[in-house]
Specification:
The chain is of the alpha+beta class and 294 residues long. 45% of the residues lie in helices and 17% in strands.
Length: 294
């Protein structure tokens, strides 16, 4: 797909402004249109953008800062939103900003569903694709991560991780709470200006999980980037308690690292970006630290 498709959408929707392609890190094509709008469309993976559109529509009804929808079509699918002020929080180490990010995640987690799993489109609504049992839902999520991430591991290491995980899987609470999770809550999807979060972007990866899992995943990402993860956790806990035993937290930490492997494999497979040795080695070292017997 080329700019010609983006130009076609602009003409159909009556939008004007210079087109600038944005590397959004997902399977949709994203363009900034002048200074006021963003245009997003997808043919290769429409279900992701459909989920993102419905998720964003749901957040319009909350106090969570999200882009305002100007136009959305689920069938195409195509989405036009107003541009938000500010820049990625990757540009700051302000603890106030990261504490606010924690509070916003806590607000997202107040939205509850009846079962776990990746959200899917069903009769025009978003419903979880999994079950009411979190042990099963967590197992499915782990399996998806390790299936992709193991392409960057040797067979022995992948098998060792599998043994560690499944020997401890029964320690997972069957129903720790079924909360909506953004599940792509990283710096590039969080905007800030003047010490305040101005927007949470990219709702394509939403799923229903134990909320503690998403907190730990975000903490790992912030720690990896040298950001104030403690301020993030403190902000979250100022609004919502985290109930988790040490054994489960260990499994969630391991899942966060395997999820990182999955991200690196995705970049290599779809964008031909070879993982930097330091990043890959650090992730594998973190995994080994968790699964090595004390």
């Amino acid at each position: 797909m080329t700019n010609s498709k983006a130009v076609e959408y602009l003409q159909e929707l009556g939008l004007t402004g210079e087109l600038q392609e944005v590397d959004a890190g997902n399977v949709s094509q994203t363009y900034r249109v002048g200074e006021e709008h963003y245009l997003q469309f997808s043919e290769s993976s429409p279900e992701n953008l459909q989920r993102g559109i419905l998720g964003l529509e749901k957040q319009q009804e909350t106090d969570i800062p999200v882009p305002e929808i100007v136009y959305a079509d689920l069938e195409e699918p195509v989405l036009v939103t107003k541009a938000l002020p500010g820049e990625s929080i990757a540009t700051t180490n302000n603890e106030k900003v990261y504490a606010q990010a924690g509070k916003i995640m806590a607000d997202i987690h107040e939205q509850e569903f009846d079962s776990y799993g990746l959200l899917k489109l069903e009769n025009g609504e978003l419903v979880p694709s999994g079950s009411a049992n979190w042990e099963r839902g967590f197992s499915e999520l782990y399996h998806d991560f390790i299936r992709k991430g193991s392409n960057l591991l040797d067979d022995c290491k992948a098998a060792e991780i599998d043994r560690f995980m499944y020997e401890r899987m029964t320690e997972i609470d069957e129903d720790p709470g079924r909360s909506l999770a953004h599940f792509d809550f990283h710096e590039d999807n969080l905007m800030h200006q003047n010490g305040e979060i101005t927007g949470v972007l990219d709702w394509d990866m939403m799923r229903v999980v134990d909320p503690a899992l998403e907190v730990i995943r975000a903490e790992h990402q912030f720690n990896r980037e040298g950001k104030p993860a403690k301020a993030f956790r403190k902000g979250y806990e100022s609004k919502r308690e985290i109930e988790i035993n040490p054994e489960t937290e260990q499994l969630y930490r391991l899942t966060a690292e395997i999820g990182r492997l999955s991200e690196l494999e995705y970049l290599q497979r779809t964008q031909d970006i070879k993982p930097e040795n330091m990043d890959l080695e650090a992730t594998i070292e973190n995994i080994e630290e968790i699964i090595e017997p004390v």
